[in-house]
Amino acid sequence: MTDVHPAWLPPEAFRAIGSRRTLVLGDGPLVETVRAEVAQACARYDGTVAAPGDEADLVLALTTATPLPPAAQALLDEPADAASGAATGAASGTASGAASGAASGAVGGLGDEGYVLARLGGVTVVLADAPAGLLYGLFHVVRLGEQAFGADRPARAHRPAMRRRMLDHWDNIDVHPVMGQVERGYSGGSIFWRDGAAAGDLTRVRAYARLLAATGVNAISVNNVNVHATEAHLLTDRLGDVAAIADAVRPYGIRVHLSVNFASPIALGGLATADPLDEDVRAWWAATTERVYATIPDFGGYVVKADSEGQPGPFAYGRTHADGANLLAGVLAPYGGVVHWRAFVYNHRQDWRDRSTDRARAAFDHFAPLDGQFHDNAIVQVKHGPLDFQTREPVSPVIAAMPATRLAVELQVTQEYTGQQRHVCYLAPMWREVLGFRPWGQDGPDVAALATGGQAVSRSLADGGRPADGGGLADGGGLVAVSNVGDDRYWTGHPLAQANLYAFGRLAWVPGLDPTALLDEWIGLTFAAGPDREALGRTLHEMMDGSWRTYERYTAPLGVGFMVRPGHHYGPDVDGYEYTPWGTYHFADRDGVGVDRTRATGTGYTGQYPQPWSEVYESLDTCPDELLLFFHHVPYGHVLQSGSTVIQHIYDTHFAGAEQAAQTRLRWEKAEGLVDPALWARVKERLDEQVRSAEEWRDQVNAYFFRKSGVPDAHGRRIH
Ligand code: GCU
Question: Could you tell me the sign of the dihedral formed by the alpha carbons of 414, 160, 98, 344, in that order?
Fold first, then answer.
């Protein structure tokens, strides 16, 4: 571990706490974690772990601890409404800033994970009803640093918007011949598995759990959603490996989930069928699940990719996805477990000549009719866009189509289609747009509210909202993302990609956080020590704030998506998927480009949205430029809302994007000396590749469209 980068928890981030007197009050394993963190910081910075009765600068206490020191008792006794409306840090009233449940006073209703933070009479106090809250409160103080010990601050309650904040690892035990140890992994091998076995030393896993807890993540799944033969055994004879991981992450409030193969009753149980309505199948899952909980009592549940890209599923038996999900939900329910059932279901063996089949429609077509049929502990996990984590996609219409189902929204932290951790691409601005999208227009709830569910939706519906029309609102399934971590010394290959992991956890806790402020937080912690932090902060903002849009400029234009090299998905290949069975086409010809997904003349996909979006996307006059080619097939001369033509927009953005990549590298070159030389060199090496790749994208995309259209660049720049 000595050679592993501390990411956002370098020792320096604990200086403010470590150099003071801190009292920790309460019992339980997570309180012990808090105590150990404080003790470690104090050992380094000469502070004191105070004993009850001692003076303290910081008190971290469970509300049940007695006796509380005066400052903590005063906070506990504060009248109701002292901290009322205390949301988690963003505009309340919208789900993006929603805290779950209203505080009945400064302290009260904090729940399993919430805490209240105040500074009174020179003492900083964190109170929590439950140990996990104390842990999250500690990390809040870490984030504040010296600021936590300045002027008095009023009591403020903090609770996570999402109950489940989860990272999925697409890690294989065996090295897959094509996908490697980690599917879509760009950070070395797996931290859990190595060459067919468990990693053994779990130091790295513990450190990971600590980093995640500091962002607010509370769940991980430890194997790939494509469950191959070896990995299927994690459910049965290799369960001990999963239990070992659960032991390692438990001290940081993280529960372990497992991806399972829907055909396990056949592959592992020797049954002739995996039919979800078969009694023997149900009995097999029930017995297997009972063993799982006997081994891992706080096991989180199963993740399932079924009938998707070759994975087995209920369709083989003429059953629905609700039948499949409910089978597993039923056996998990007695233990409080959940099944995350993925909605990523489409025909990946499509005939490219068939223009009536639209992959973007598939998830809605399969799942929307099943709304209301899923058990309470079945969470339908929906990718944020209808296709597959492209640089720009509209929000999936499934998210608005299932008000009576627990929905989780799935993001992709690993940069499969956004530069594979070789390009700088800070994704929080994209996620923020997704979470803030309001499927029913300005008066309706946003995506964050729908993932939060229940109360948050009703609160933000105030009146006139649509989901309640259909009856009861389900509790939300939370936010899930595919992790970008591996056994790389910087965790994420590209050191700056750590910011994406950090931002994901924080947005799952407070979906309304501003991406720029979030980046500030990450920079402040990660580069807590260093010669000129302000200059470094400026440089990093210049490099990262707009990096997603820069990436968008030099890659596939106007929301059309893909155009990547098939298989590994890195770098440009405009026609790479055009004549394949995957359903991801752009239909460029000599006259125009884009996919007609209108109701009037296309695939009808726009009809999957409620108003106003159904109409906004349908009409060429109102469809946003950045999604134009996702929804419409238009001539190259079509004039965008920006005033430019489609073809000129393609040229302009590709020249500009590649130029911006070069600027990004220049900025980093000037920052040499402001960070550790090895980290600087790693980022520089990645930037060299980004600049090369951005030029390649620019030249291939521009050449392709120039050759198709014959339209010259208005500025006469060089197109090959
Ligand atoms: C994408 C990705 C696959 C992954 C799949 C999924 O298609 O390329 O590697 O398995 O998404 O989300 O299941």
Answer: positive
